Amino acid sequence: MSDVQQALQLGDNIELPTVGFGTFLIKPDEADGAVESAIIAGYRHIDTAEGYHNEAGVGEGVKAGMAATGISRADLFVTTKVWPGNAAWGDPPKTYDGTIAAFEASLAALGHDYIDLYLIHAPSGGDERLNQWKALVDLKAQGKVRAIGVSNYLETHLEEIRAADLPLPDADQIELHPWSQKPALVSYLAKNGIATIAYSSLVPLSTWREGQDSSKTDQMKADSADEASPFKAMAKKYGVSEAQVLLRWGVQKGYAVLPKSLNADRLRQNLDLFGFAIDDADMALIATMDRGDGVAWPGVDPTKLG
User: From CA 262, how far away is CA 264, in angstroms rounded?
Assistant: First the structure.
């Protein structure tokens, strides 16, 4: 559909493919095959993190995917994230030098010469938060990363960066789906030229994180399983899967999305979001479904860390 961009602009004319492949909870020894399959299926945006403990496998998968498809590294967009530490968990926040060292370790694990997008994973750096951001600014200036950003940052954290007279992030990766829409934050990001990347887009699915910890409530789980769910009705109406409806909502709102699947058919379906559009009435209906804070992190809201 012509109304939806298949790439978002980051900073200085850098294109971020709208649909990326997320690797959270993919085991290190399965990451290479999963990423290779994603690239073969057509994904050109791969998302990982220091805290996922699978960067080496992701790097091997990127290498295998390039070999299988004949594409080059320049045809791919790779994101990783530095874990900032969290004093409340007995995990000392990284200093400026610690952040640089973590970047170099991620770069080596991935086996790449540069990173397309480097993010601070959460605002949990406390007194070191600005030093961590200064490290990313310097990495970008040195050409080691093409774009820099944050994840789980709220307006207050972003205004802290502005008040320090430092460049604002190119992107903020946050939990976004019909049950956690964060309209004020999304509006702030748009007004400040910060691209929005959505994670956990599929929270309303009954199969989301089955057997894995999260903060999804029993009521949410019951609503997900309800055969009368509005997302099931929309999927039938548009002739697509529920996952495609949820992902299409995100890209139609102007966000990048990061679906994850190890199933070949679902891999292809999750990428196929541009052959249909959610109509205005259904978009208006979804706008009424917001339930507030995210649920992806078990027992904690990452926007309130640090």
Answer: 6
Is residue 2 a part of any domain in this protein? Answer: no
Confidence of residue 2 (pLDDT cuts 50, 70, 90): very low
Q: What is the per-residue pLDDT across 185-231, written as a single tens digit (0 to 9) for each?
A: 999 999 999 999 999 999 999 999 988 999 999 999 999 999 999 99
Domain annotation covers residue 1 = no
How is residue 240 written in tokens? Answer: 């697509």
To the query of whether residue 153 is one of the catalytic residues in this protein, the response is: no
Round to whole Å and give the CA distance between 164 and 194. Answer: 17
Which residue among the candidates 52, 118, 153, 255 is catalytic per the annotation? Answer: 52
The H or E element containing residue 104 is helix 96-110
Q: Distance between CA atoms of 51 and 84, rounded to whole angstroms?
A: 10
pLDDT in tens, 257-279: 999 999 999 999 999 999 999 99
> HSE on the CB side for 183, CA within 13 Å?
8
Each residue of 83-142: pLDDT tens digit?
A: 999 999 999 999 999 999 999 999 999 999 999 999 999 999 999 999 999 999 999 999
User: How far apart, in whole angstroms, are the C-alpha atoms of residue 159 and residue 169?
Assistant: 11
> Containing domain of residue 290, as a range?
7-298
Sheet holding 115-120, edge to edge: 21-22, 45-47, 77-82, 115-120, 145-151, 171-175, 195-199, 256-257
Structure tokens at 181: 């829409």
CATH of the domain at 66: 3.20.20.100
8 Å CB contact between 256 and 45: yes
Which of helix, strand or coil describes residue 306?
coil
